[in-house]
């Protein structure tokens, strides 16, 4: 029997109105949305399975880049380790010791953390991707899994054929599709994947219509290696290799060492750049996000991993980016000159610069675009994955119910603003993925954390982490 969920405040999207809050009832059949009835009458409300009256119902959040399993390194990154290449100097060494069972246990913990933050769909990229996919289905987190592909260097360099085979199997798996887990191609980075493997990736992408999800220009080592071998930047290497012209959707993560010329190459409808601001502040430094927007590039937001971020709250990442341009004022040459010799005229100049940047914020970071990122995983409105398309027919039945009486929504005049700028997780009243309530309505966090499934997952993850650290001599 179909399930119906509704309230006076449901966040809907349409090509004409964009994002708006309207009274509505969502009709759910199995794991997908079937129909949306706006402005229901009293008879329809009475027949609704779950009517939440004044509470606020939104789609679940979309995290456009993460490594769920890497939460096992939360808090273990020392300051001296971030001075070098954190991925190669620390992550790779531990990942050479990690087993599929470890990855599954750690991923379950990451999946629980995502759900409790309001995230219901992720783009995960990691080793032992079969274990990642299984762990996500066990917890009820939906998303796209990109099995890491490497053949030049890295912990997966001898497993790329197995990873490619799994990617194809996952892509054709009706079982995983019913559980909301889909496939993407995951070449690790431009310097860890050979030209031959990139060609294999492109062939498979074209044949199976699979998206490509990869790290690009994330370190000086990557930039230097590509420059030394091919005489160009990582982005230009992808252009020469035919990746940019491929017909598939392409998701480029980090994009730190990128020139103005590279930006021009990426101005395409099928390319989106993925920002992970908090993570980049720790493992390296942030990309030139303001230049992304000035160049009209498509973009989205991810958390990266708890090892370099300490949180899997993608809404927090978006809040950071929503005010990011203002940081450029404090880093400007005008402010340096003011500090050197402060005068009223220079103060006025800084004020003018601030107003100019504020106008850019209004142009590039409009509220509607921020909601596209949060709920579609794509700034320009077309969902990054057709099954994570908010409340539209055929989309996965993923939703969150927020307690309207929580102070984060008071005085109730700007609830959309609260979704981006407030710490709204404590206001979570109900959580659904795949048409199933997760935890108890009205008591989501406590009920999940006290469940036998969560306690068993935490116990296994702790045991496996201790064993892994022992094997690694840590």
Overall description:
The protein is α/β, with parallel strands linked by helices. It has two domains: 3-60 and 390-438, Urease, subunit C, domain 1; 61-330 and 361-372, TIM Barrel (Alpha-Beta Barrel), CATH 3.20.20. The protein is 42% helix and 20% strand. Strands 1, 2, 3, 4, 5, 14, 15 and 16 form an eight-stranded mixed sheet that branches. A four-stranded parallel sheet has the order 6-7-8-9. A four-stranded parallel sheet has the order 10-11-12-13. A hairpin with a 2-residue loop joins strand 2 (18-29) and strand 3. Helix 3 (100-117) packs across helix 4 and helix 3 packs across helix 20 (452-471). The chain is globular and about 70 Å long. The model has no long low-confidence stretch (mean pLDDT 94).
Give the topology, please.
Elements: E1 3-14, E2 18-29, E3 32-38, H1 42-46, E4 50-51, E5 56-59, E6 61-66, H2 86-95, H3 100-117, E7 119-126, H4 129-139, E8 142-149, H5 160-171, H6 174-178, E9 181-187, H7 195-208, E10 212-216, H8 220-230, H9 234-240, E11 250-254, H10 260-265, E12 271-275, H11 277-283, H12 289-294, E13 298-301, H13 314-322, H14 327-330, H15 333-340, H16 344-364, H17 367-376, E14 399-402, H18 415-421, E15 428-433, E16 436-437, H19 444-449, H20 452-471
Parallel strand pairs: 1-4, 1-5, 6-7, 7-8, 8-9, 10-11, 11-12, 12-13
Antiparallel strand pairs: 1-2, 2-3, 5-14, 14-15, 15-16
Helix pairs in contact: 3-4, 3-20, 15-16
């Amino acid at each position: 029997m179909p399930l119906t969920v509704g309230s006076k405040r449901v966040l809907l999207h349409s090509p004409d109105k964009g994002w708006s809050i309207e009274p509505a009832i969502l009709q759910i059949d199995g794991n997908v949305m079937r129909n949306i009835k706006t402005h229901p009458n009293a008879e329809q409300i009475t027949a609704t399975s779950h009517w939440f009256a004044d509470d606020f119902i939104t789609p679940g959040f979309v995290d456009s880049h993460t490594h769920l399993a890497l939460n096992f390194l939360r808090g273990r990154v020392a300051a001296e380790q971030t001075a070098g290449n954190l991925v190669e100097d620390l992550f790779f060494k531990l990942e050479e010791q990690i087993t599929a069972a470890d990855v599954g246990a750690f991923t379950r913990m990451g999946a629980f953390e995502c759900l409790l933050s309001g995230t219901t769909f992720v783009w995960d990229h990691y080793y032992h991707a079969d274990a990642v996919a299984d762990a996500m289905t066990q917890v009820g987190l939906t998303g796209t899994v990109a099995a890491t592909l490497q053949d030049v260097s890295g912990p997966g360099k001898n497993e790329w054929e197995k990873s490619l085979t799994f990617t194809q199997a996952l892509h054709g798996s009706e079982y995983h599709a019913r559980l909301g887990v889909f496939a993407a191609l995951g070449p690790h980075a431009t310097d860890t994947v050979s030209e031959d493997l990139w060609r294999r990736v492109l062939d498979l992408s074209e044949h199976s219509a699979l998206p490509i999800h990869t790290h690009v220009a994330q370190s000086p080592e990557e930039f230097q290696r590509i420059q030394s071998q091919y005489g160009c930047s990582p982005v230009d290497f992808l252009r020469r290799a035919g990746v940019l012209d491929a017909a598939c959707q392409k998701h480029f993560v980090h994009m730190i060492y990128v020139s103005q010329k590279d930006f021009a190459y990426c101005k395409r409808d099928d390319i989106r750049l993925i920002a992970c601001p908090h993570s980049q502040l720790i493992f390296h430094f942030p990309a030139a996000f303001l230049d992304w927007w000035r160049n009209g590039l498509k973009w989205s937001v991810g958390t990266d991993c708890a090892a370099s971020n300490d949180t899997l709250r993608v809404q927090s990442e978006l809040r950071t980016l929503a005010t990011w341009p203002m940081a450029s004022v404090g880093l400007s040459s005008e402010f340096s000159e003011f500090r050197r010799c402060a005068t009223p005229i220079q103060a006025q100049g800084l004020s003018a610069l601030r107003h100019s940047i504020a106008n850019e914020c209004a142009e590039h970071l409009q509220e509607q675009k921020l909601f596209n990122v949060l709920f579609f995983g794509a700034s320009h409105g077309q969902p990054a994955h057709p099954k994570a398309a908010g409340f539209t027919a055929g989309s996965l039945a993923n939703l969150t119910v927020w307690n309207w009486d929580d102070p984060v929504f008071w005085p109730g005049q700007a609830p959309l603003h609260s979704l981006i700028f407030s710490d709204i997780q404590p206001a979570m009243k109900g959580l659904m993925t795949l048409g199933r309530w997760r935890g108890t309505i009205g008591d989501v966090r406590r009920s999940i954390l006290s469940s036998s499934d969560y306690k068993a997952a935490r116990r296994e993850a702790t045991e496996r982490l201790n064993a892994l650290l022992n094997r690694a001599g840590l």
